[in-house]
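Lab notebook, bench 4. Still working through the backlog of constructs that have no structural model yet. Next entry is a single chain of 114 residues. Request: give me the structure tokens for it.
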Amino acid sequence: MPHDPIRQAVIYARVSSVAQLKKGDGLASQESRCREYARYKGYEVVEVFQDNRSGGDADRPAMTALLSFLAQQTQTCVVIIDDINRFARDVVGHWQLRALLAEAGGKLESPSIE
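Model written out:
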């Protein structure tokens, strides 16, 4: 029985303050948790995108880079976020970003959400 090829994944991590950069929920712990999830799911992490901006801020450089990266891929890429509040601050923003992500060829997953 042939096995599925390793699917590619990218990680998106975001903090909104300098304090969060240094606390346990900073970028490093988000990335670590996402990498653990990727290993569990059999994904190869090919890129990590990190923002230090508010979730309500539409001008997030790493999010822009992530969407551009996805648009250049030839296959669907899994985008792993640590938690839903790291993606967007509110429900409307979340669904708008999720639509952009899907349009660019990304599929959102998180160890915190089934």
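Notes after review: The chain has a mean pLDDT of 84. Residues 7-109 form a domain with the Rossmann fold fold (CATH 3.40.50.1390). Flag for follow-up if needed.
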